[in-house]
Design a protein that fits this description.
alpha+beta; 2 domains; 9-stranded antiparallel sheet; 3-stranded antiparallel sheet; 13 helices; about 30% helix; globular
């Protein structure tokens, strides 16, 4: 039986050192074509057949969307406007920090892959603020400066690996995997609409000499054989979502704001975790929830006991708004990309490159 949520219970998740170690949800997904439909995992230059792993028990598994990719899909929801419904506006929950470049272009820090530890941040007028926040965290263990400036860097994790080396573990983690998969292959043949040789674009000798370039530019036949053509999941396609309450309760601020900061970060994590998933991951991979397999959030105790909780997106947003009002964050700000800072960051590499010329 699910436990009816209230703010007292959610507050205890952030406050009680003996509370649950995590919140967890397993969501079963289906291809838009239905069970047994072909889906396309991501491809990588150094991995064959999508990197399908065979386990010791004979099962096969493939990552359909990685932890990092899921974080990058969820984080931008905090830029979402209300569309006339103030109660649904997520952009008020976090500072809207933009980095301007060019004549009239900008990038939101919510769309920057490495968040506060990204090269773009180091190459902008935000660098000093970010550096001081990371340094303060390393010196004191106090992450409130980061939480005030870029709270999603705590929710989804950040690693300032190229500067201070400060590292923040993810509070919210999501990943999609498909089980018991078979890789299928496909072949294709492109046939140009005209016989360009007959039209005098090139003669037979020229065709023989530059046939690869002709095909590359779309003026010749292009055969493609034995390419990966997706996978069929004979087992479940699972989205696993975890909110790490141990990592959350290890966050420290000063004596006055530690509790408020933890609750605020938890609120953001709950909103991100309960936001309806955008199942269009890439071409050939459009997933929906399985309506016949309800997903249930569970609070996992230190003893492994799992208790169902009725965690909804509405309850998460209500809690996050209250937590946001109790924790003062930085105002919305705009910073500038600075080419000189970028050059300084790359000076060793650029110097070596120039030396080879």
């Amino acid at each position: 039986m699910s436990e009816q949520l209230n703010n007292g219970i959610i507050n205890a998740w952030a406050d009680d050192p003996k509370g649950p170690v995590a919140l967890h949800l397993t969501q079963i997904l289906l291809p838009i074509e239905g069970e047994g439909g072909v889906i396309f995992p991501p491809t990588y230059a150094d991995l064959k057949d999508y990197g399908v792993e065979k386990l010791a028990d004979g099962r096969t598994v493939v990552t359909v969307d990685s932890v990092g990719s899921q974080a990058n899909r969820i984080e931008p929801i905090f830029r979402r406007e209300a569309d006339g419904e103030p109660k649904n506006d997520l952009s008020d929950l976090v500072p809207q920090i933009d980095i301007n470049y060019g004549e009239s272009k900008s990038v939101s820090i919510l769309e920057v892959g490495h968040r506060l530890g990204d090269a773009l941040v180091r190459s902008s007028t935000l660098k000093d603020r970010a550096n001081k926040a990371f340094a303060h965290f390393l010196d004191t263990g106090d992450s409130s400066k980061i939480a005030k400036l870029a709270p999603t860097s705590i929710v989804f994790g950040a690693w300032d690996s190229r500067d201070t080396s400060a590292k923040l573990p993810r509070i919210l983690q999501s990943v999609i995997r498909a089980w018991d998969v078979d890789v299928i292959h496909r072949s294709a043949q492109y046939a140009p609409p005209l016989d360009y040789q007959a039209e005098g674009l090139y003669d037979a000798d020229e065709k023989q000499q530059i046939k690869d370039k002709i095909a590359e530019r779309g003026f010749g036949h292009v055969p493609a054989g034995n390419m990966v053509g997706g996978v069929v999941a004979n087992g479940p396609i699972q989205r696993q979502i975890t909110i790490n309450l141990i990592a959350l309760r290890r966050l420290r601020g000063d004596a006055e704001n530690t509790q408020a900061m933890r609750r605020y970060i938890l609120g953001l994590a709950l909103v991100g975790a309960t936001d309806p998933v955008d199942g269009f991951l890439r071409q050939g991979c459009l997933l929906t929830a399985d309506p016949n397999t309800p997903s249930v959030w569970e609070a996992v105790g230190r003893d492994g006991v799992r208790s169902a909780v009725e965690l909804t997106s509405g309850a998460a947003l209500e809690f996050a708004k209250a937590a946001r009002s109790a924790f003062e964050v930085a105002p919305d700000e705009q910073f500038l990309f600075d080419k000189k800072l970028a050059h300084d960051d790359l000076k060793d590499v650029l110097g070596k490159s120039k030396g080879k010329q």
